[in-house]
Amino acid sequence: MVSKPTITRTREVRPNAESIVKPGELIDVVEVTPLTLNDRRIYNLLLENAWDAIDKKVEHVISKSELRGSHNSNDRVGESIERLMSAIVRVKTSRNGEPHLERVQLLGGNVESLKRDGLLHYEIPARLRRIIGDSTVFARLKREVMFALTSKYALTLYEIVQKRGNLKYISKERFRLEELRGFLGVPDGKLTSWSNLNLRALQPAIKEVNALSDFEVQIDPIKTGRRITHVELRWWRKDADGVGASARELTFSKVGRKPRTEGTAEVVTGVDLKPRPAAMEKFGAPLMTDTYQTARLRHPGYDIYFVESEWRTWAATKEPAKDPDRAYLAFFASYAKGNPL
Q: What is this structure's pTM?
């Protein structure tokens, strides 16, 4: 007797400190109401926060500060919540082995505290809870990548690839051009020609995903007659050097990322990187030169090597950092905030 393969429900997959889980049904969706990059990030955080009981009829609670990110105002959070409440998406699902199209709202009713650091109480709509409960396909999204991407097209492309990246025997997929436009959330009447869509949305998104994720991505147009009617998405996992390069890029400032990813970055002048003092040798091998340069550019006026000594002294009582360069830059940000010049 041949045993049936075990099916893992998306609900059984757990988020962790580095990544969140998103049901595949909420990735390949067509937005009737286009959302912004910030809307999409906030929605991912709302899903993660509700994950332990996301398929149950309960009220979820999250601090507004978790949704606000680096913004000082709660206005953007409120605007995003209202857009998510009014957003309707078309989701392809299966019932009794037959394909169906479901139209669902992304977010239900909610109550927001008027305090700056108050709470948001919110609900997941009933039909969406059922879709998530039945889901068996998902993407694991890295937090750092999600917040580093600078356009909604890049974030959506990243999610599309993450959903498919671990498939064993598939490394490409064909989409109707209008279908891809819908997945990306391109507003009606915008980027109507292939050249504009490719130049303004696809190519910038591809470059960002290639620079920051664990995959390389390529999108090729396919013609029917003289018209481009389809595209073929290809993806492949990076080697160890490529993954390492992406991890390093995530530690750097977004300033200058575009020329770096396009290979047009110029050597930065006017940044005086003096040799590491001999007294620092007691702390072991130096960090990467780019790390010191990033620290100097982010925090002008500070002695980068003194802060390094402070960091290494503090870190000596902790578990060894997996990425010392990234850990140093994170410590530097906290140090500069607590010790303004």
A: 0.75
